[in-house]
Amino acid sequence: MAFEPWPADALEGVSNCPYCNGADRSLAYEGVQDWAFGSAPGRWSYWNCSRCQALYLHPRPTRASIGNAYTRYYTHSGDQRTSRLSVFKQRLRNEYWSNTLQTSIAPRLGLPRWAAWATAGLKPRIAEPFGLRQWAQLPKGLLIDVGCGNGDKLKLATQLGWQARGIELDASAVQAAQAQGLQVEQGGYELLANYRGQADCVVCSHVLEHVHQPLHLLQLLLASLSPHGVLLLSVPNATSFMRRHYGENWRGLEAPRHLAIPDGAWLIDYLRAQCMRCTQVPSYPLETAVESERIQRRGGAVLPIDLRNARQQLRGLASPDMAQQDVTQLVCTWAKA
Ligand SMILES: [Zn+2]
Asked: Which of 65, 152, 180, 184 maximizes the CB count within 10 A of its CB?
């Protein structure tokens, strides 16, 4: 992978932590490149905030130039592998989730109810997508997915009975979602301001780390919730056990698109101070480990050796406690509700 420099006039200095506004910091990693996708130019430095443990870029791309980091970004493609095997696997997973959560997610295998035992053995092999349980079990209403990409989650939520709407910055992703009949508006997260107090469920999955003003996004997320609304928030954890293990090769970095990654424990404290009650859901670290193995050898595509190495590394590591999860996944409601 060859990397051009990021144009100097398209960089801005960051004097204070984007999460806690603290000025004290130490250099965490320098010379980090877009090893995740091999597309964005530049060599980047990440800093550790001494006050809240967030990890953030300084300097970073300006708002006007950040779009150049997304020219070959994965959620922006409408393409999906539709081999017979992958279609079968999706149906198998849907069958399993439909039975486990007592709902119906299509397309599934269509096994009769008495045959549910046939998929029960899959449990250890199928990671439940974060939010699925809540979408299946909560009373249905207006759901907003901020940064919805090409709308996979919206499609699922619609199937489960939600009135689902998406907000997405990227025009081609919006087109791909609209082509599937999904309701998606093109624009930044600021569009959340149109839903003040209305949303019964707000989904913000892997978006917080991408924005220049994450606290502003958090404020708009909370303001859009109805009195009984639920926020489903997921974001890499700056103090992840995977980060400690893989260092600058940790998949969670993703320079220069990940501008600022919060510490999970700090984020929970922040939300509690905003009168939220948060429940944390543990995350599955295998995908991060596989990708980090690929990045460590500077490979462009995942190979079987990455999976083998990742499994071996994970076997050797102690199970992380909640504060060290690789991804902070939170289900938040108003404490008063
Ligand atoms: Zn901080």
From this structure: 184
> Are 248 and 148 members of one domain?
yes
93 CA to middle of ligand 1, Å?
A: 39
Point out the domain boundary residue: 70, 100, 120. Answer: 70
Does any domain span residue 85?
no
Cα(50) to ligand 1 centroid in Å equals 7
CA of 18 to the centre of ligand 1 (A): 7
Q: Are residues 139 and 211 in the same domain?
A: yes
- Report the sign of the C-alpha dihedral through residues 229, 233, 239, 241, in that order: positive
Please classify residue 107 by burial: count the beta carbons closer than 10 Å to its beta carbon, then call 0-12 exposed, 13-18 middle and 19+ buried. exposed
Calculate how far, in angstroms, residue 260's C-alpha sits from the geometric centre of ligand 1: 10
Cβ 332 vs Cβ 274: under 8 Å: no
Indicate the residue type of 132. Answer: L
CA separation for the pair 314, 311 (Å, rounded): 5
Q: Let me know if residue 308 belongs to a domain.
A: yes
Please tell me the distance from the alpha carbon of residue 335 to that of residue 171, in angstroms, as a whole number: 37
243 CA from centroid of ligand 1 (Å)? 17
DSSP state of 98: H
Interval 84-131: pLDDT, tens? 777 777 777 777 778 777 777 777 777 766 666 666 666 656 677 889
Q: Is the dihedral of CA 208, 211, 213, 218 positive or negative?
A: negative
CATH at residue 217? 3.40.50.150
- Structural domain including 20 reads 8-70
Tell me the β-bridge partners of 5: none
Q: Give the HSE-up count for residue 68: Cα atoms under 13 Å, Cβ half-sphere.
A: 15
| 151 and 64 co-located in one domain | no
Please state, in angstroms and rounded to a whole number, the distance separating the CA atoms of residues 141 and 152. Answer: 18
